[in-house]
Design brief:
GO molecular function: alcohol-forming long-chain fatty acyl-CoA reductase activity; alcohol-forming very long-chain fatty acyl-CoA reductase activity
GO biological process, one term: long-chain fatty-acyl-CoA metabolic process
EC number: 1.2.1.84
Strand order of the largest sheet: 1-3-7
Strand content: 5-15%
Distance between the termini: 94 Å
Helix content: 40-55%
Function: Catalyzes the reduction of fatty acyl-CoA to fatty alcohols.
Largest sheet: 3 strands, parallel
Transmembrane segments: 222-247, 344-366
Number of strands: 9
Oligomer: single chain
Shape: globular
Length: 371
């Protein structure tokens, strides 16, 4: 590869999520790619699925596991080549380019917004104080482009360097790693995420919603599981029962099984905090010229999350749920009815609980007082 100028391998910030602190360096992989290929080729699919949890060890899924192995492959095979590793956090909707709020997948947080918007997702196994390491897709791409430029121009130093001094060529024994995360410059917690999603979601609810926004974050799994029973599965049983009575197909239980599976996958990252280092990313931003900073903005320190969510939620509605912005007034009328029913239902439940307490505890209290 004599004419190779730069190669940027895109990994993930969570490739080593078994660690509490993640630096911009390549860590020891769980296995080599040769052993992993040999293992998958020598074992039948069914048995391989059964032993996968053992292979993964402390990692939550095969995605982050293989990303860690791939980083080692890049390090091993890139000796003397202009190679870097770019690790973005959870990539979400575009901040400004190509269109504000543009998004094309339901993964992670975007799926949470869809679930909340339709009124299907009502509880999430999540520590509200944990940082939601989300980054806009256009900012991540800009940082990736800048990474390629820096990789091709390794003699360019930090802006703190004296301009009169010649830049020293840096010899890299292994690829430079860039952790592109929001937690170091512009952190946002899952509580803030949910509050902003609800605030802006209530301004543009989808027409296909089944209920209003009502998401509860539960740090403890047992409490979350109780919420799942009462807020997910019980309503699903009731709705499927009504559907069967009227001769329609029952499908809510199947939907909630998928929702529960989605929640389980996400919970590993919504209940853990990671201390990321991103000195290389910050240094990269400092050495860009004013013109390049304007053309390829990726500094998250000035990101306005409230403004971002205004477009993010609307982008989810338009590009994922395929709903025309012109239908928002119609959806608002429907949403107001759901909101009224939601409040009325809460009052009825509160009344029934108070009545239950009154009829059971007061007689006991009176008997104790008499004696």
């Amino acid at each position: 590869m004599r004419h190779l100028k730069a190669l940027v391998h895109v990994s993930t910030a969570f490739s080593n999520c078994q660690l509490d602190e993640i630096r911009e360096e390549i860590y020891e992989p769980p296995t080599t790619h040769q052993k992993l290929i040999q293992l998958t080729q020598s074992i039948e699919g069914k048995f391989l699925n059964e032993i996968t949890p053992i292979i993964l060890d402390k990692r939550p899924n095969t995605y982050v596991y293989t990303k860690a192995v791939a980083e080692e492959v890049v390090r091993t095979l890139s000796k003397g080549l202009p190679v870097s590793i770019f690790r973005p956090a959870i990539v979400v909707a575009a901040y400004k380019e190509p269109i504000r709020g543009w998004i094309d997948n339901l993964y992670g947080p975007s799926g949470v917004i869809v679930g909340c918007g339709t009124g299907v997702l009502r509880t999430l196994h999540c520590d509200e104080n944990v940082i939601a390491n989300i980054v806009p897709v256009d900012s991540a791409v800009n940082a990736m482009i800048a990474t390629a430029w820096k990789t091709a121009n390794r003699t360019i130093g930090d802006s703190n360097q004296n301009e009169n001094e010649p830049a020293e060529e840096v010899v890299h024994e292994e690829p430079t790693v860039y952790n592109y995360v929001s937690s170091t410059q512009r952190p946002i917690t899952w509580k803030q995420f949910s509050e902003l999603a609800v605030t802006h979601g209530e301004e543009c609810p989808p027409t296909q919603s089944l209920w209003c926004f009502c998401l509860t974050l539960n740090k403890y799994f047992l409490i979350h599981y109780l919420y799942v029973l009462f807020l997910h599965f019980l309503p699903a049983i009731v709705m499927d029962g009504i559907a069967m009575v009227f001769g329609k197909k029952a499908g809510m239980m199947g939907i909630y099984k998928k929702v529960n599976k989605f929640s389980e996958v996400l919970s590993y990252f919504t209940t853990r905090d990671f201390a990321f280092h991103n000195d290389n990313v910050q240094s990269l931003w400092r050495i860009l010229s004013p013109q390049d900073k304007e053309m390829f903005p990726f500094d998250l320190s000035s990101l306005d999350w409230d403004e971002y969510f205004h477009y993010y939620v609307r982008g989810v509605r338009k590009y994922l749920m395929k709903e025309d912005p012109a239908t928002i007034p119609q959806a608002m009328n429907k949403y107001k009815k759901f909101k009224f029913l939601h409040r009325a239902l809460k009052l009825v439940i509160a009344f029934l609980l108070l009545r239950l307490l009154w009829t059971n505890l007061v007689p006991i209290f009176l008997r104790v007082s008499v004696h």
